[in-house]
């Protein structure tokens, strides 16, 4: 009997306990593969291994080209996660080329995205902090010189030594024209990079159901459940049609009109809901979850300072996670100390259920809490913010921050449309201006 037949038989004989769509698939050969690869890679010091890397900015490649943003990666998106795991599994198990997915965030940050945790759990990876190979686990500098890229197509500067070579690229961002000899090399538009992985590398491969499910989760998240008229392209529909039967979640497949079988639709809805779910996070994690850092040059300051400013975007109103009691403020100051920040801005965005907006979902509001160490910087910032005609801040009458040794102010935004995209340049303009 062939290995493949044995595997099919063992699947058929397994008691049908798992409920389709939500319950974890156990035991997971995928999780075992990940744990073994991590142990072997570390014990062999990288030798013959190929490191499979996802997009280091977790789906926002813009960050790489914005010079005033330092490289802070707290989040990794599901596309990057699923694509790198799948490419490593296929290279290792099918082509016998040892490969390991490197997840480019710290181990402690792996739990920040509930939709990632959910997809991993459904794919039998229930303890990602132990099972995945993260930046915290990787030797520094990394010993490997062979890389496969997914979800981006330029090797990160930290890995680009003279001997580095890129052996494979699968991506859906703009093609920078690098690594012409990579094989496979597919850089084409798609809703999800996972769709390229499924259609280029996974064809004629007997994927474990956990891996098919994981790739499918990424495609569902990136294409709003293959919504007609949305981000899904033909390649995403082809990939989903291929993966759905392998995932064992449904016997029927999707159609190109985007009608999903019921268990797949349920999985898709659950993932989408988790994307906005931060109920598992406390103040410390909320500050770090969606966070960017900027470097500011203060030519007006007597010591011509170069300072760091951080902006955290949080989808929960300040009072709900402890502002005004001192508990949120304590974590904010701890975060400033850990990151060496001169300024921390906490930008909230939420719906006020006590006031119905036009949508009936509650009026959309934004608040800002600011923490500043230096007196002179604080003076400038308050003046600049309070005079800005675009963001229109008003003092937050019902909330008083409780904090010692750091200047702080808290505002409501008159203009609830102003996101961090406009607050970041405003902060830079106010704090750097000579006058
Ligand atoms: Mn992507």
TrEMBL record:
Domain of life per record: Eukaryota
GO molecular function: exopolyphosphatase activity; metal ion binding
SUPFAM superfamilies cross-referenced by the UniProt entry: DHH phosphoesterases
Record keywords, A-Z: Hydrolase, Manganese, Metal-binding
Record-linked InterPro entries: DDH_dom, DHH_sf, DHHA2, DHHA2_dom_sf
Domain (DHHA2): residue spans on this chain: 268-431
Cofactor (UniProt): Mn(2+)
Cellular-component GO terms for this entry: cytoplasm
Keyword Metal-binding tagged: yes
Entries under PANTHER family matching the protein: BNIP - RELATED, EG:152A3.5 PROTEIN (FBGN0003116_PN PROTEIN)
Protein name, entry field: Putative exopolyphosphatase
Source organism (scientific name): Mycena indigotica
Organism lineage: Eukaryota, Fungi, Dikarya, Basidiomycota, Agaricomycotina
């Amino acid at each position: 009997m062939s290995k493949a037949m044995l595997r099919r038989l063992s699947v058929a004989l397994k008691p049908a306990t798992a409920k389709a769509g939500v319950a974890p698939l156990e035991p997971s050969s995928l999780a075992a593969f990940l744990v073994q690869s991590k142990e072997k890679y570390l014990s062999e010091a990288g030798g013959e291994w190929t490191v499979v890397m996802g997009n280091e900015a977790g789906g926002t490649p813009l960050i790489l080209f914005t010079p005033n943003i330092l490289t802070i990666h707290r989040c990794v998106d599901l596309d990057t996660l699923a694509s790198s795991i799948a490419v490593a599994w296929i290279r290792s198990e099918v082509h016998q080329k040892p490969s390991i997915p490197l997840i480019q965030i710290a181990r402690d940050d792996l739990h920040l995205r509930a939709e990632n945790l959910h997809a991993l759990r459904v794919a039998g990876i229930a303890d990602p902090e132990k099972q995945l190979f993260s930046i915290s686990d990787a030797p520094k500098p990394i010993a490997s010189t062979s890389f496969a890229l997914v979800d981006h197509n330029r090797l990160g500067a930290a890995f680009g030594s003279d001997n580095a070579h890129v052996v494979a690229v699968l991506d859906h961002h703009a093609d920078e024209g690098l690594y012409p000899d990579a094989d496979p090399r597919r850089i084409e538009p798609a809703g999800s990079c996972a769709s390229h992985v499924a259609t280029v590398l996974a064809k004629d491969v007997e994927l474990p159901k956990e891996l098919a499910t994981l790739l499918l989760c990424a495609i569902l998240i990136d294409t709003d459940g293959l919504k007609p008229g949305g981000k899904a392209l033909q390649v995403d529909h082809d990939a989903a049609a291929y993966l759905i039967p392998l995932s064992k979640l449904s016997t029927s497949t999707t159609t190109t009109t985007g009608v999903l079988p019921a268990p797949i639709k349920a999985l898709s809805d659950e993932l989408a809901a988790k994307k906005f779910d931060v109920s598992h996070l406390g103040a410390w994690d909320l500050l770090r979850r969606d966070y960017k850092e900027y470097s500011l040059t203060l030519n007006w300051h007597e010591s011509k300072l170069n300072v760091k400013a951080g902006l955290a975007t949080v989808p929960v109103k300040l009072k709900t996670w402890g502002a005004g009691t001192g508990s949120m403020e304590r974590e904010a100051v701890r975060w400033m100390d850990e990151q060496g920040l001169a300024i921390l801005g906490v930008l909230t965005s939420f719906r006020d259920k006590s006031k119905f907006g036009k949508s009936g979902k509650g009026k959309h509001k934004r608040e800002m809490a600011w923490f500043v160490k230096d007196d002179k910087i604080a003076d400038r910032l308050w003046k600049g913010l309070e005079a800005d005609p675009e963001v229109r801040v008003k003092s937050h009458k019902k909330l008083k921050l409780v904090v010692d040794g750091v200047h702080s102010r808290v505002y409501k935004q008159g203009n609830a449309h102003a996101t961090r995209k406009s607050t970041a340049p405003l902060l830079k303009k106010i704090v750097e201006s000579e006058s």
